[in-house]
Amino acid sequence: MPLAIYHEAMSATDRSNEGKACDAVLRSIEAREGAVRRDLIFPEKTHSVGPVELVCTLGAERFAFEHTRIEPFAGHIQLEAEAERHFKPITDRVAGQLPPESRFELDVPAGAMLGLNDRATRPIQDALARWILDAAPGLPTAPLGRYILPIQKVTPPGVPFAVSLHRWPRDGFLGALAGRLGLST
User: What is the pTM of this model?
Assistant: First the structure.
C-alpha cells in the first residue's frame, strides 16, 4: 500500500498561485500603461540569468517579476525542500506492511532533521520505520476527525526526538501512512 507523507512542501497549486499573482500584477500594469506584454522570458524555467519568475516588455520598458514567499517561521522553506528526502524513505520502508484497513499519521517536530545529511538521517529513518511497524498494529483506532487523547509522545530507540503515531479507519484516505510536521520542538 503506498505511503503518503504530509509535509508542508510547496505544492503545484502554490507554484501555480505564484504565476497567477505575477500575472495579476502584470495585467494591472498593462491596463495602466495601455500596453500589452511581449517578449516573455521565464528565467527560472530556462535557468537563464536572474532568478525571477518572468521578464517581459510593456511598451518601450522592460519589466521583471518575482514572487517571493514569506516563511511562516524561520527555516520553513528549507524544511520544505528537505522534507521529501527525509520522510519519503520512511513511508517507502513501511509501504504494504501496515494494516490495510487503517490510516496512520506520524507527527514529527518541525525541523527535527533539518540540516542533517543523508548519512545522519538513514539510521533515524530506519529506527522510525521499525518503530512504526512495531507500534502501528497495537494502536487504538480513533473516530474520523478525532485523536485518541491524551496524545502520547514517544522517543523511539535510535530517534533523537519525540514523535506520536495515530490511527484512523482508512475510509476515504489514499495513503496508509501520513506524516505531519508539527510546530513543536
Answer: 0.61
Per-residue pLDDT tens over the stretch 41-61: 888 777 666 677 788 899 888
DSSP secondary-structure letter at 137? Answer: G
3-state class (DSSP) for residue 81: helix
Domain that holds residue 157: 76-182
pLDDT tens, 105-118?
Answer: 999 988 888 888 88
3-state DSSP call for residue 4? coil
Distance, CA of 183 to CA of 32 (rounded, Å): 43
Tell whether 168 and 98 lie within a shared domain. yes
Query: How many Cβ atoms from other residues are within 10 Å of residue 156's Cβ?
Result: 19
8-state DSSP, 106? E
The grid coordinates listed for 171 are 475510509
